[in-house]
């Protein structure tokens, strides 16, 4: 008997939704049947060759008994917007897909929670746990025994060392580094390239340090 593919609707029509569509289509056993957005943002009937359905009326055509959702939203309001939409969809009775890239290295005991996305070249070491509705973009290192909370967004090439705890709704920027045994509270923001060596309270912000432009223009450089 041939097992039928699981049918999936993606919430969103922005860039993250397009990436999610590509990943699920190319590297999962889900059959993507359409997109859905709130009616006020529904500015088209079709996207990437699939129908765009009003979220307010999704249950009429795509029953929670037959279809799953993936909430493909970013880190707006420190992930609160994605968290709220997950809760709203759950109240309608929907279950949620998760995606773990075949190009990620994931320890055998890892269990993907609802609405998680682990993209290519992530390393998830032994005894790591990752909460629901969390997105790991490409190329991160998550060290052994670390605990990543719910509704977290980790951008590319961050290093989370061993036994780190990251609270719910945190954002970790590109190339950030968190030292081993550090605990971050909820709703923390770690900027691009930041180095975190001490624990942090809820809602702590670590700004990324930008490189200042040289006063010497490129045509006056002695060598390059």
Keywords:
224 residues; Rossmann fold; UDP N-Acetylglucosamine Acyltransferase, domain 1; 2 domains; seven-stranded parallel sheet; six-stranded parallel sheet; 3 helices; 22 strands; 13% helix
Short recap of the structure:
The chain is an alpha/beta fold.
Descriptive report:
This protein is of the alpha/beta class. It has two domains: 6-91, Rossmann fold; 99-204, UDP N-Acetylglucosamine Acyltransferase, domain 1. The protein is built from three helices and 22 strands. It has helices at 15-27, 58-61, 80-91, and strands spanning 6-11, 30-37, 46-47, 50-54, 68-71, 99-100, 105-106, 117-118, 123-124, 129-130, 135-136, 141-142, 147-148, 153-154, 159-160, 165-166, 171-172, 177-178, 183-184, 189-190, 195-196, 205-206. Strands 6-8-11-14-17-20-22 form a seven-stranded parallel sheet, covered by helices on one side. It has a six-stranded parallel sheet with strand order 7-9-12-15-18-21, with no helix packed on it.
């Amino acid at each position: 008997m041939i097992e039928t593919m699981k049918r999936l609707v993606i919430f969103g029509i922005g860039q993250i939704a397009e990436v999610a569509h590509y990943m699920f289509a190319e590297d999962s056993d889900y059959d993507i049947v359409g997109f859905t957005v709130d009616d006020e943002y529904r500015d088209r009937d079709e996207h990437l060759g699939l129908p765009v359905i009003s979220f307010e009326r999704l249950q009429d055509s795509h029953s929670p008994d037959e279809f799953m959702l993936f909430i493909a939203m970013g880190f707006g309001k420190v992930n609160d917007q994605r968290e709220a939409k997950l809760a709203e969809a759950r109240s309608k009775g929907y279950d949620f897909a998760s995606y773990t890239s075949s190009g990620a290295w994931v320890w055998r005991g890892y269990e993907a929670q609802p609405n998680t996305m682990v993209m290519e070249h992530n390393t998830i070491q032994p005894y790591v746990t990752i909460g629901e509705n969390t997105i790991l973009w490409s190329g991160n290192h998550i060290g052994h025994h670390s605990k990543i909370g719910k509704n977290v967004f980790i951008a590319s090439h961050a290093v989370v060392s061993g036994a780190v705890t990251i609270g719910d709704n945190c954002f970790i920027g590109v190339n950030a580094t968190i030292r081993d045994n550090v605990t971050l509270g909820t709703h923390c923001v770690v900027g691009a390239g930041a180095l975190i060596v001490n624990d942090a309270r809820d809602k702590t912000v670590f700004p990324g340090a930008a490189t200042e432009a040289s006063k010497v223009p490129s045509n006056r450089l002695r060598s390059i």
